[in-house]
## 1
Amino acid sequence: MPDAAASPPRARSHRAAQVVAGLAISAVALWLTLRGKDLGGIGQALRDADYRYLWLYLPFLAAIHLLRTVRWGLLLEPVAKVPFGRLNAVSAVGIMALSLLPFRLGEFARPYLVADRPRLRVSSALSSVVVERVADGIFTGLLLMVSLLSVPEGTPGLRVIRTAGVMVSLAFVALLAFLVGAYRNRALAVSLATRIATPISPRLAARGAGMLDAFIHGLRLVPSGRKVALFFALTAIYWFVNVWGMQVLARGFGFDLGPAAACTVLGVLVVGVMIPAGPGMVGTFQGAVVLGLGLVAPGPGVATHGVAYANVLWAAQIGAQVAVGLPFLFSRHIELGRLFSAPREVEAGLEDEETEYRAGQGR
């Protein structure tokens, strides 16, 4: 375990560097998105928008939160059936943290907040989030590649986006293959990861091997076949609701997106927000939406109404996540004071579990 006295200053310095880097990425992304755009025209597009469609979009955001929460509960069930009240609170706060914290540090909030040792260990909670992300990455990557088939060849940016979609899909498929291999042969997976990391840093490789071992141990319990089928069905519904909601809101800005076009915009958005950025995914979110719209609705309207749509879509999603998560910060289910230490706590939890596991093996 790292020295307790030395860890907090290093952690604070590391977090400060991440914040600065995230803000820099957001600033560059915003500059690229707005470069050469008519800011007055964007402001006029915001004023001219039909905000009745924004009100119609809000129920979609509520459904998205509910589907995400129920789906996550399915992955946790083999380890512990978390009461819906606690699951909902942790999901709301965790997704809010993911949206607001830079460099996607909020990914660690949910597994840390829901963990309840010894019933539900950090490794199992973290494994559930990773499996969820892998499933989403593969689904949206394939969705993007299929939807791009409807985009005419020669459309500016199509080749770059298509390449990015293929790379993202392959990356998540490779990660899935690693998880399946790790599930079947834990020792081989840890050995392989250690060999890859050792030339870079033997000390970090040794430390990471223990945490990876504990993480893989959390994969050992998987849902039944029926629950796995239900998980994938909910995944499809979850992303369908996302697509449908984006279509509805787009009408308020003059864009009549068909299903394939909306899937393209969503797919580009998902790839775009994978880039670590500042709080709220500012810049990368707007840039990805405008880039996606440029593939399916080329023309001067994208430079004004498209940018306005991207900003309202971003504000609606962030606003909804804060509105849902903020009240739960003060509920009995959440330890507010430890939320920002989630990444360090997850790391420490994995190290503790690996120590316990090895001690048990030695008995």
## 2
Amino acid sequence: MKTTEISCLCGTVKVQLTGHPITQFYCHCDDCQATSGGAYIGVAVYPVDAVKIMQGELTTWTLKSLPRQRCAVCGTHVMAEVPGLAQVGIKANLLPKGEFKPDFHLHCRYAVLPVKDDLPHFKDLPASFGGTDGTSNW
């Protein structure tokens, strides 16, 4: 089975990912914008049992709704466990080059920088995430 190791920017935290992500996407929600300082972020979603902290300590913080975990030393946002689901969202910028292959964009109603590409752009959430599948036409 495939294993991937990621780390925070200072290398203190190391996380092992087993297998392949369930899905990968760009999130444009206002919570991700505020916590990242960017217009959107890339996320790779793994089952919770496929994510193992091998080294270092993570601290948890919440701005609006999603508890996020970051390195206790350098503050790098590493992951977020999705409340109510056995899934963990891994920050895509920590994946090895070429490993992030997004399937769609979500929460596009919050977009401050619309991205024009061939991926689906959901206003809120796709049906597979409990949403309506409503899309944005950029």
